[in-house]
Amino acid sequence: MKSKEIRQKYLDFMKSKGHVIVPSASLIPENDPTTLFTGSGMQPMVPYLLGETHPDGKRIADSQKAFRDVDIENIGDNTHLTFFEMLGNWSFGDYFKKEQIEWIFEFWTRVLKFDPQKIYVSVYGGDAEIGIEKDSEAVEIWKKVFKKHGIEAKDLFDSQKKGMRDGRIFYYGDDNWWSRAGAPSKMPNGEPGGPDSEMFFDLGADKKFHENSPFKDQPCHINCDCGRFIEIGNNVFMEFVKTQKGFESLAKKNIDFGGGLERIVMISQNKDNVFDTDLFDNSMKKIEELSGKKRYESKEVTKAIRIIAEHLRSVTFIMGDNNGVGPSNTDQGYIVRRLIRRAIRYGRKLGIKKDLWTKEIVQKVINDYKSVYSELEKNKSFILDNLNQEEKKFAKTLKKGLKKFKEIVRKEEADNYKINGRVAFDLYQTYGFPIEMTEEMAAENDMEVDAKGFYKELKRHKELSRAGSEKKFKGGLADNQEQTVKMHTAAHLLLAGLQKILGGHVTQRGANITKDRLRFDFSHPKKITEEELKQVEDFVNEAIEKEIPVTMKEMSVKEAKACQAQGVFDDRYGNKVKVYSIKGYSKEICGGPHVKNTKKIGGFKISKEQSSGAGVRRIKAVLI
User: Fold this and answer.
1) Terminal-residue alpha carbon distance, the chain
2) What count of other Cβ atoms lies within 10 Å of the Cβ of residue 174?
3) What's 187's DSSP letter?
4) What value does the mean pLDDT take over residues 49-72?
5) For the CA atoms of 363, 368, 372, 373, what is the dihedral angle to 10 degrees?
6) What are phi and psi of 55, to 5 degrees?
7) Sign, CA torsion 71/26/561/567
8) Distance separating alpha carbons of residues 200 and 80, to the nearest angstrom
9) Does an H or E element contain 471, and which?
């Protein structure tokens, strides 16, 4: 089956079991300050798992876009990905363990025709300290399901130490507990969680996974890292919430299932890695064409082609999201920039000479996915414009930067094979090399990087920049006159209005404020229509008319991010920051000053909108 058919068969199967199919939530979380990206299917469903009523009922299913940057360094092996799709179904206080286990096994074996003899499961082994027992209920259900297929399912503890021993069901500790925070001990109060039962597919002992792996001297079991067993899905039995008193039962027991589409497709298409499936095939063929290399001619080539295909697929989905974010030096934008630049560097290692070649890969991704995720086609201009700008920007310095790096290695500027922080910072500041890239290249040359020294240099640079900025004018303000302060507060409302009307990709790129006018630069790929400008202007004036208090609170940068404050220039700030809030409209890290109430601003009028560079627009405005 093709991936599109598998995705649809899952949704159709769950629909036949009474589930309402809902679209994927945004990759950029809108109401969750705990993460930069939506990293699981469960994340957008937390309010309903905690008891809120879902507008579509008690049984929900979807295919959710997800991104986890923690796996960037692992890309290139058989299964790790940064972007992935999670097939999911939920029961909000409706069915529970029996139905979920029976249905998902039916989907594997009847719909996708997976061999039941190759399916193994894990369950929660319990924890006396938190008062939760082993999940005997799930074990008994699994035994009955396997028995219907003529399989005697033996349940075992200690497989990490003693191996498989002809077992079929295996108990684990924290590995079989699920919450956004991870293990029970890491969960904050108010966080839902529960035991889970993961399902694994045996790729086959005949493939010599364990014998050829770094783990060959360790017992092989379904949750080891040798590569023989691959997780295909996880049934989370969401029945507890962490409180000050410990773990208490939720008012309603919930089901949260998630299965990685890419891995499911891999097994269905009889592959031993996700990159040989139809999800990546067109992209990888284009990389082979551009580079003149074949994906399996060497380990180095295989890894490079996989990294390029994976990273460019990820940035396509991040930038193509309806809340899409382009490359920058902060937050989600930093991750986008890092992925693009890493892909470009591996493209050079493959010998790709063509200018602006990344868009050719991205176009393949858009074509492959647009029938399922229409936002990719809708936001294609934003994706390609940002990609071209970033590739041009990095191309200007990459060649010189790589030459400089080779000089560092050749001249042994490194001390005991360790690149000092000052040199690493120079690569960052002068050549645009993220510290992670320098560390990666150093490792390729059996060297290390003095990361502490790098961050010390970075901190010193920020302090000098901040001091220089304060000598010029504080926070973009020409002075602290009353009219200038009014204009400054209006600038916060303007940014909020632009993001609401144009989209979450809008970020401030600069501002200059005097008593007579506001000049405001922001990221946006095209000219703004008269209607959009009117909507933004009305948004600001509405906030002014509501007479909303402007409040300020001092906090750490970490606390500011946790409360979803925007940090437009947060690389200039120290440990403590001021967060100015206009309730319902704006919350920003800012040095001030501001009016005490929005009514003081008076009236706001946009006088001009124009280009201020590639992908950057400028608005000029006055108070009336």
Assistant:
1) 63
2) 14
3) P
4) 88
5) -20
6) -60, -20
7) positive
8) 16
9) helix 451-472
**CB contact at 8 A, 611 and 617:** yes
Token representation of residue 527: 């000219």
The CA distance from 162 to 167, in Å, is 11
pTM of the entire structure? 0.72
In angstroms, what CA-CA distances link 59 with 44, 65, 66, 94, 111? 15, 19, 21, 7, 20
Closest to 537 in 3D by CA, of 624, 604, 618: 604
Query: Closest Cα to residue 533, out of 618, 623, 601?
Result: 618
Question: What letters, b where the CB count within 10 A reaches 16 and e where it falls short, cover 31-47?
Answer: ebeeebbbbbbbbbbbe
In sequence order, the 6+-apart residues with CB closer than 8 A to the CB of 335 are 36, 37, 69, 318
- How confident is the model over 18-45, as pLDDT tens digits? 999 999 999 988 655 567 899 888 888 8
Q: Are strands 246-260 and 229-243 parallel, antiparallel or unpaired?
A: antiparallel
Sequence-distant (6+) residues with CB within 8 A of 123 are 134, 135, 138, 139, 142, 155, 169, 170, 171, 172, 176, 195, 197
Per the CB < 8 A criterion, the answer to whether 11 and 3 are in contact is no
* Residues 6 or more apart in contact with residue 616 via CB below 8 angstroms: 509, 521, 522, 523, 524
Domains in the chain with CATH codes: 3-268 (3.30.930.10), 277-411 (no CATH), 475-623 (3.30.980.10)
Which stretch of DSSP H or E encloses residue 560? helix 557-562
* One-character DSSP codes across 417-445: SEE-HHHHHHHHHHH---HHHHHHHHHHT
Encoded tokens for 69 = 């940057």
How far, in Å, CA of 562 to CA of 319, rounded? 23
User: What is the DSSP code string of 191-251?
Assistant: -EEEEEEEEEEE--GGG-TTTTSTTTTS---TTSSSSSEEEEEEEEEEEEEEETTEEEEEE
Kindly tell me if the per-residue pLDDT of 90 is higher than 90: yes
- Across-strand partners of 622? 605
Rg over CA atoms, the chain: 27
Paired tokens of 573: 């700030």
Residue 427 near residue 405 (C-beta atoms within 8 A): yes
Cα–Cα distance, 514 to 492 (Å, whole number): 15
Alpha-carbon span 12 to 255, nearest angstrom:
18
Amino acid identity, position 620: K
Query: Residue 467: its pLDDT value, please?
Result: 62
Contacts of 393 (CB under 8 A, 6+ apart): 432
Mind listing the pLDDT tens digit for each residue in 538-582? Answer: 999 999 999 999 999 988 877 887 788 886 433 434 456 789 999
Q: How far is CA 225 from CA 64, 213, 306, in A?
A: 26, 8, 20
> Do 362 and 318 touch, CB atoms closer than 8 A?
no
Query: Do residues 518 and 511 make contact, with C-beta atoms less than 8 angstroms apart?
Result: yes
